[in-house]
């Protein structure tokens, strides 16, 4: 199949005007809206949207083949658990069948849950274990109870509180519509809403009119595809859909040298608060937080001179040290210096924990997970972002 390229790339606006909303959008949107309203009524409650897993791009409408983006959903599912333990209400927008909070500890490939179980047969005949009316009981083998118990407790607590809402997407079109919809609901949370965009979103898609209806036949020889670019929705998300939200995006690279420049470029293009850079092969051990310093001449609403959408809560070192010493600060000269060192990078590494370890270690075998460190840092930053508005 060969398709011709659109003369004009899709803008976010033209995308939503031309691409149909997915089935079930209204129902899912309503669930997310109700969830947000429920928690908005609780004073000081913070709500985070965690996006997780990779999006697909179907090549046929009766889909046999599709293009996929890499992500098992580990980052998102693990992070969602740590947000919950920090008191957040969590909307978990995730790829169908990718990892989910709590159950991720017992994924079928890494830790199949059947292996945790043992059968205790109290009937006189051993055949009762498989038959109906059996008096057999199924137990968690004692060696697994210790690790399962805290997970199960947190899971039950979460269900009781109703603090986790899981919503599924599959295609990049599902993802974009759902993201827009949930962001519109969450914008009413103002600064109490956080967006943690860990999903791996396709950069390319096939517009509806270019998608083959039936399975593409192989007897025609080679397959040529020309795909359109997915509009970068981060821009309207930051600048229009939720101007007060605390927004964290991820940058995945395979060349470590590109991590910081690409993260900086994303901050500069979209104007949000934080990019978390991660290298594909080192993402479970280290990440880098890339942020912009707050221009001190801005008016506190993120409106700085020459940059009307600069958001940030990080005080530049020159001002921080003057404040600590109780001396006056010349904002003009501070900002002049700021132009030279606009960005701040903070590396988080698991090996930093060896001295003065304060992490809980809720991983599969009690090991510390990098997401625990990430979420602790984010909770502090989000609180500062909220406080800066008071
Ligand atoms: O799940 P794991 O296996 O643990 O893997 C986790 C991860 C490596 C996938 C995750 O940590 C990660 O890096 N996710 C983002 C990867 C990515 O697709 O980056 P990107 O450069 O395409 O997008 C950057 C940001 O813009 C992302 O936050 C994305 O959600 C957002 N985006 C991208 C494209 C688009 N059209 N709209 C968007 O909002």
From TrEMBL:
<feature type="domain" description="DNA/pantothenate metabolism flavoprotein C-terminal">
    <location>
        <begin position="185"/>
        <end position="283"/>
    </location>
</feature>
<comment type="similarity">
    <text>Belongs to the PPC synthetase family.</text>
</comment>
<feature type="compositionally biased region" description="Low complexity">
    <location>
        <begin position="1"/>
        <end position="14"/>
    </location>
</feature>
<protein>
    <recommendedName>
        <fullName>DNA/pantothenate metabolism flavoprotein C-terminal domain-containing protein</fullName>
    </recommendedName>
</protein>
<dbReference type="GO" id="GO:0003824">
    <property type="term" value="F:catalytic activity"/>
</dbReference>
<feature type="region of interest" description="Disordered">
    <location>
        <begin position="1"/>
        <end position="29"/>
    </location>
</feature>
<dbReference type="Pfam" id="PF04127">
    <property type="entry name" value="DFP"/>
</dbReference>
<dbReference type="GO" id="GO:0015937">
    <property type="term" value="P:coenzyme A biosynthetic process"/>
</dbReference>
<dbReference type="InterPro" id="IPR007085">
    <property type="entry name" value="DNA/pantothenate-metab_flavo_C"/>
</dbReference>
<dbReference type="InterPro" id="IPR035929">
    <property type="entry name" value="CoaB-like_sf"/>
</dbReference>
